[in-house]
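Notebook, p. 212. Picked up where the previous page left off. The plan for this session was modest: take the two constructs that came back from the sequencing core last week, fold each one, and keep the raw output in the notebook itself so nobody has to go hunting through shared drives later. Recording the first one now, exactly as returned: residue sequence, then the structure token string.
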Amino acid sequence: MATPMKGLVSNHARYVQSFNVFLAKSTEHQSMGEFLETQLPAVIASIGNGKSTINILSVGGGAGEIDLLILSKVQARYPGVSINNEVIEPSGGQITMYKEHVAKMSDLENVKFTWHKETSYEFESQMNTEKKSKKWDFIHMIQVLYYVKDIPATIQYFHSSLETQARLLIIVGSENSGWKRLWRKYETSFPLEGLCTYISSDDIKRILDSAGMNYQVQELPSHLDITSCFTEGNKDGELLLDFLTTTCDFSKTAPPELKRQVMEELRKPACSEERDGKVLFNNNMSAIVIEP
């Protein structure tokens, strides 16, 4: 009898391994970095006007690499202004890495860091219980909404916490990405522990439209080299398959027919393109900037 499939997030060490391979094989962070370099200055152009302290909230800050890029842009726009950077991150391991990254930086004297080891829902619940209503100048939620149970309520809550000149930045998978194709077809076959749902930019836009929010969207082109997934027994390939399906040891525990279908799907033009002997999965993202 086949071993039952288990969600990847149930095995933290395996999740971290697979995520690190994903980052190494994809252009995700490079693509985000380019967006932050070229487009973020305009997004944050007025968030700190007339303020002695800029309040930033990172929802799902992870290990902090992207957060620190964002902070460098805010510092460049508002030199010498104090920044209060609060981070919501449920993983203690990720917070530890975040703190290690901060310790290596030399130009953060004007930044105060606060880490909340909890989910966005727990943060919101605590704020409501304590009847606190803090306002923020910039909130960012980068590749995090897949882990949120009630996405419209979560967006509504953080949107209501924006100052008058503030911005809310959401980055999620694009509606044109291979992720959407793969997950729309197989999400009922993959274990979902820890991952609430797969959403893409079209889902977010529907939520924002129905709430009457003003926003702009920009596509962030990105790809993931999944060539190694098609070499039986390749360790990186197996870890990438785990990440793509959110399944621990997918290649060993998935029913043979499901594995065959997924491998076939991954090669289709709607998911990937073949270039120079490589299979490049469409990892496009969308950056959505929401006004108060």
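Okay, moving on. Second construct, recorded in the same format:
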Amino acid sequence: MKHLDIGCILVYSNTEKHISALFSNNKGLNVFLQSAKNGLLTLDIHTTSVENAYFKNLVNELDEKVRKLEFAEIPKTPPYDSLPAMKRGREFSHYDIVHGIRLVERDFDKLVFDEVTSRQHLRVLHSIEFGNCLYCDNDITIGEYDYESYSHALSGFGHVDYNGKRVLILGGGDACIVRRIKDMGSTMITAVEYDQRVVDVTKLYFREICGNLLDSMTGPNYEIVIEDAAEYLEKAVKTGLEFDVVINDIATIPLSLEPVGERWEFNLKLLANSMKVLKHDGVFVSHGTSASRLQNVFQ
């Protein structure tokens, strides 16, 4: 470390076949050196600014020295100065953990709306690629430019006959699915939304999704009902209501080896009651989740 001018050691520990050391200097640099029992040596170099010329020169110099070591495995990718800087200390996060294994950075550039309602936390974040994006309790719900792809998929990819049918949409307060199918001949479409503020926010920031449909909560063949969808289903079962099509736009079916946990319990209850109100030749449509690396799930 001395020939790289890294500076003084702040913390140093040495156990059997394992070394950890933290170096720091007055040029805005912190370096963490760690060894493992299998011989792996890791060196993390941190700076508060990737524009730090000293930092760039040091990283490049270190890269050149490592590549000259006889025992070093030469990387198959070209060298780079540093990893992208993490965006911290802002009023919203740019990052999500996807499938529990991947850190994804979103291209949000501003916070448009932020409110904790009586039922949930609603936020609208603007994305350069997707326009306004609606988050409900930190779960992304829909993007401003998602109308065509999302409504096409959740309405059944054009394979569901809505003519003369009675339709129940669980969720759907953004009117995305209602707008897609309202002119396909349905006798009545009922969307059951949990939070009135979702409707209000959609009208303000998601006209690309709802058009002018939410200017009124009812139309010739549709209605938006503000109620808990699970409770609505239970009442529908008791009163003997029946539907030709039930669309689950409220809860994603999780992907797991076993149907356990709160999310599965909620989904199974929702599914069971949906089947009870669905006619014997009816159609149930839902969205699910997937894993980007199936070996992690099914091995």
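Notes on construct two before I forget. The chain has a mean pLDDT of 84.
Flagging for discussion at group meeting.
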